[in-house]
Amino acid sequence: MHTPFRYRRMGVSQGRLRYVEVSREEPFLLSSFVLDDGGSGWMQEHRVVLNKLWASHMSLPLQQGATTRIVLIDPVNANVVYLAVDTLAVVAVDMDREEVIGSYPYSDTAACIPCVLPPWLGSSRIPSAGGKKFVRKNKTLVDVVAYSDSYYKR
């Protein structure tokens, strides 16, 4: 089933509301739009032909029926969109430069949430959660997040 959220995505990047869509038919276009300053309309920023991009950078031409989906809009760089290519990988596409700038292993079960965390967050201490046994004093946020997932799966 083709659900719209897989091929269309709204998000905030560089402080502005953006809309990105990928077509499901040849020539497989990746398009991005930004809400104008007055909030009255959308302006197109980018349009990239993915077939050309895939063939030149990944040696992987797209085919009809391929499942290229939008995973997320980069919250810091409005030129970058992350796309899932079938269930093989997530690729980072710089739409301004029209090139693939990264590729990462991907699984449909992986959750991707665009966010910017302050650099101090990973090492800051979390106070006692008052009765929750899985959170102990002097654990960092990374410790709590990494181990709380296993706690909920019990």
Automatic annotation (TrEMBL):
Pfam families: DUF1618. InterPro entries: DUF1618. Residues 4-82 form the DUF1618 domain. PANTHER family: OS05G0468200 PROTEIN, OS05G0468200 PROTEIN-RELATED. This is DUF1618 domain-containing protein. It comes from Triticum urartu (Red wild einkorn). The lineage of its organism: Eukaryota, Viridiplantae, Streptophyta, Embryophyta, Tracheophyta.
